[in-house]
Structure formats: structure tokens, C-alpha cells
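Design review, sub-item: ligand-bound model
Attendees: FS, YL, KQ
YL presented the inputs for the LQZAQKY5 complex:
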Amino acid sequence: MPVSPGLTSVDDQLRSILDALEPLPAYEQPLLEAMGLPLAEDVVATSALPAFDNSSMDGYAVHHADVVTASDDRPVHLPVVGEIAAGRAGAKPVALQPGTCVRIMTGAPVPPGCDAVVPVEWTDEGTVEVRITQAPDEGQHVRRRGEDVSPGDVILEAGQILGPRQIGLLASMGRPAVKAHPRPRVVVISTGDELREPGRPLDGDAIHDGNSFMLAAAARSLGAIAYRVGIVSDTGDDFEEVLSDQLVRADVVVTSGGVSKGAYDVVKEVLTRSGGVQFTEVGMQPGKPQGFGFVGEERVPIFTLPGNPVSSYVSFEVFVVPALRKLMGRRRLQRPLMKATTTEAIGSMLGKRQFVRARYDVTRTGATVTPVGGHGSHLIGDLAVANALVVLNEDQSGVDAGTPVPVLVLDRDF
Ligand SMILES: Nc1nc2c(c(=O)[nH]1)N[C@H]1C(S)=C(S)[C@@H](COP(=O)(O)OP(=O)(O)OC[C@H]3O[C@@H](n4cnc5c(N)ncnc54)[C@H](O)[C@@H]3O)O[C@H]1N2
Ligand code: MOO
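KQ shared the predicted structure:
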């Protein structure tokens, strides 16, 4: 069975969101700012690494032929005619004369003519004359110019995610900044007269605002910049004012609450009036009431997520995560579906895609998944215990224990 009549399928909803978005324009960003972002350029080496032949040991730069016979029984003695330390070698290298050696430190350029370095451990550490009791191989302990990277090499390709190793390479190449799509600035607004800030007392039927923290944290964990605006009342004017104030610093707005069929569903009411946002009932549980569109003169994308905490979280995972990744220039937008065997039977609603909170474990016999709590969209305690969502499709009414099922494993980069 396909999605129930009157409902939009998850796939169609996601497709129309992604089709409407383009990556944010890339620009040069300081290296550490670009951590975790995909590169928006191929990076070509402009210089060699190592930049010059240099010593990998503290020791003595020698002509290999002079020391080839050195042993404990027949040590070789050489005059020490100088010293080269890393960063102190100066611009003019002095050639090493045969029959002599130079004290050299790790990383210092080897003098022209040197074709091996004798580590100090194989010598008496002499400063005027040195006694050498072991011979290096020819070329040993000399790191050659360009043996790692040659000028013209493509060292990093567009699309590659910048992690510590790539950032280290760029810095080593002398690049202070690199072209990357910026982190989207995500403004998170929660709506509801019943909401109070954590830390504030609850009066009457008030509840604490969990969603805006959860959604801001989810945006941040994806590498976006999250601005948690906090609570806005169910009064249309308040919501309109806060939204228009916030647009200046938003690449994306995410709201929670106020989108179903109640008398005070402020988000739906205001944005239906202003236009530009499509409210849709999506064939999924949780997360049926969805809204997506553009607001303000700059046409800032807005996601209006349902207020039930689990619905909000799952909606973020299913729609906002791929969207933010597209804005950041990521190529893989959707979390991959893993396979795991369910340890329990799971029920599902025909005509809707069910996202079932579960614990994913890797055991000696393979991956398993165990549902946590029920399907209720208010069960935030169970949500926090879960680390995965089992995905049951629209044509499934449930699965038996022992069935392999597709799983979204949460909190992992992909
Ligand atoms: N007659 C109908 N009622 C409802 C339908 C429906 O189809 N017909 N859909 C239900 C579904 S499904 C969902 S999901 C919710 C979505 O409602 P809203 O997006 O309008 O959200 P609210 O009514 O504002 O709140 C729902 C629920 O969540 C709590 N909430 C809201 N914001 C927060 C927050 N920031 N932190 C913690 N908890 C929050 C709120 O107190 C409500 O309990 O509508 C169903 N109703
Ligand atoms: O879709 Mo609601 O999100 O089922 O609770």
C-alpha cells in the first residue's frame, strides 16, 4: 500500500524541500572555521613537502662512502666542521666536504653532498671530532624534498570533508584559509503559551521548553550555527515580530509547535496569511503536520515542525538534516539506512512511514535493534534512551521479532 490518500509521502516532501534549496555560496574561510565542512575547491600543491632535503635524526650529516666501514671494532673518526639546527640554517647552504661531517638536528636541511645521517646513538657525540661505530645505509635518515607531496599534486578534492588531518596538510602547505560553504545559521523558535524556560518555575499547566534546546543542539551537532531564540507566545503579532526580527541572522528558520488543527496554532495561522509556506500532512508517524517554505524579502527557508517533542525531533532528522547538509555543500544528504535484526515485534500503521525509536547494538552475531517505549509522540524520556530509528515503510503493518529491518543510526557522522 502506498501512502494514505490525502497525505504527502515522506519522499515527495523531502524531494520538494531539497529541490528548492541550493548550497550557500562558498567563500574563503580560516582553516579552523572550515573544520567539518566540505571543501568547495580542488587544492593543488603549490610547493613540495618536505620543502627541502632534511634530516630525520639528531646526528651527523656525512658522505656515506666515508662511514660505510664503521663498526664497533673499526670505528671511523671524522672532524666535525659545523652544526645545522632546524630554523637556523640560513639561506646559503654550505656543501659538505668529503672526509668531514656536520652536526645536524632533526628537521634541519642536509648540506649539499650529504647522503646519509648517522644518529648520535651510533657515535661518541664528539663536537670537534666524532667517533662513529655503525654505518647508515646510503640515504638513510635523509627525508627527500617532495617525497610526500610534489608541486602540482591535487592534495585535496572538492567535496572532501575537512578534518584534523586535512587541515594539518593545508596549514603545512602554507594555506591560512580555504574555500568552503559556510555553516548555515539556524534560528530556532518554539511557540506555545504553555512553555517556560528551563530553570523557571512551572505555574498551572505550564511545561518546560524542551524542543528549542533539542533542535538547536541537533543543528549544532550537524555543524550548523544555532541561535536559540526561545519561547514565543501563541499570539500572532508576537510570532510575526520575532520572526521578522530574526530573519537578518538566519540562513534557515526552524519553528516548533503551532502547526496542527488547534484554535491557537499560531505558526500555521501567521504563515498561511503571509504566504510562501506550504503546510502539508505527511504520511509519517511521528511527524504528520509539516510546513516548509520561504519567508521575508530574502526568502529565508523555514521549517515549521510539529510541537510534540518526538515529532519535532524525527521531523528534524528526516527533513532538516538533509536540507542543512545541502546548504553546507555536503554530497551525501541522507543518513544511510543500516540493516539490523529486531529483537522484538514492531507494529506499524499501514499508509504511513513509521519511525520507531530503538536501541541499536552491534553484537558478536551482528547488529540488533530493540524498540524503546511506545509510538507516543510525547515520550521524550524514551527518545533520550534511543540511539536509532527503525524505519517501517508505508506498506508494512509490522514486523516479527527476528526480522532484518532498516535503521537510521543516530549521532554518527555520515
Ligand atoms: N485534531 C487534531 N489534533 C491533532 C492532530 C490532528 O491531526 N488533528 N495532529 C496531532 C499531531 S500528529 C501532532 S504532531 C500535533 C502537532 O501539534 P502542533 O505542532 O500544533 O503543536 P502544539 O499543539 O503546539 O503542541 C503539541 C504538544 O507538544 C507540546 N510542545 C509544544 N512545544 C513544545 C516545546 N517547545 N517543548 C516541549 N513540548 C512542547 C505541547 O505542549 C503539546 O503537548 O498535533 C496533534 N493534534
Ligand atoms: O505526527 Mo504527530 O507527530 O504523530 O504526533
